[in-house]
Amino acid sequence: MVSRIFGALALSGVAVALGAGLATAHDASYRTSVSIHFYDAAAPGSGVSKCDDPTNHHDCFYGRVSSKLSACQPGRVVKVFDRNPTPPMRAPASRADPPELIGETTSDAEGHWIVIADDPGTHKFFAKVPRRTIVKPGHTHVCRRAVSDDLKVESDFG
User: Fold this and answer.
1) pLDDT tens across 71-100, in order?
2) Where are the alpha helices (DSSP H) in the chain?
3) Domain housing 88
4) Which of 22, 60, 77, 81 is the most exposed, having the fewest neighbouring CB atoms within 10 Å of its CB?
5) What pTM value is reported for the model?
6) Is residue 20 part of a domain?
7) Mean pLDDT within 116-129
8) Per-residue pLDDT for 59 more than 60?
9) Confidence at residue 126, expressed as pLDDT on a 0 to 100 scale
10) Residue 18 falls within a domain, yes or no?
């Protein structure tokens, strides 16, 4: 009788331990955002370069990937697009051109990123970060995709 009670207690302890292990396992989705800014090296009063450029001669887009889950910030691929690229000379006037990829990079440990762009002209640009899934034993974290607001750049100083 006593051995049955100890056996039942031991079995219930294993069940509780397994249940606690399952309770900590989870799948979660985290919102991500991406900002975009432009640094024009030739603009009057442009100040110190934001382009990680000690010569201060490069224009660049820069920004940050942000999320409540810090693991969603570093190592994210960031692509910068021109929303309204100049169409080819022979393109039909009614054809809507897709956004043109200007450049891409990977965000650093704090989520900061930089894409060098020499005199991109006067256009609207945006940054895009694709979805990323982080899988660890018992956990799946989905870092959602993000698209920045449009940024109008008037780069006529170069």
Assistant:
1) 999 999 999 999 887 665 555 554 567 899
2) 2-24
3) 26-153
4) 22
5) 0.76
6) no
7) 90
8) yes
9) 97
10) no
Specify if 40 maps to a domain.
yes
Beta bridge partners of 114: 62
CA–CA gap between residue 147 and residue 128 (Å, rounded): 4
Angle at 61 between CA 57 and CA 65, to 5 degrees: 140
Res. 146: pLDDT tops 50: yes
Distance CA 92, CA 99 (A): 16
Of 36, 54, 42, which Cα lies nearest the Cα of 124?
Answer: 36
Integer distance in angstroms from the first to the last C-alpha of the chain?
Answer: 90
Residue 133 lies in a domain: yes
88: CB partners within 8 A, 6+ apart: none
3-state secondary structure 17-60: HHHHHHHHCEEEEECEEECCEEECCCCCCCCCCCCCCCCCCCCE
Which tokens belong to 93?
């006037």
Within a 10 A sphere around the Cβ of 74, how many other Cβ atoms?
14
Specify the pLDDT at position 121: 81
Q: What percent of the chain has pLDDT over 90?
A: 51
Which of 145, 126, 128 minimizes the C-alpha distance to 82? 126
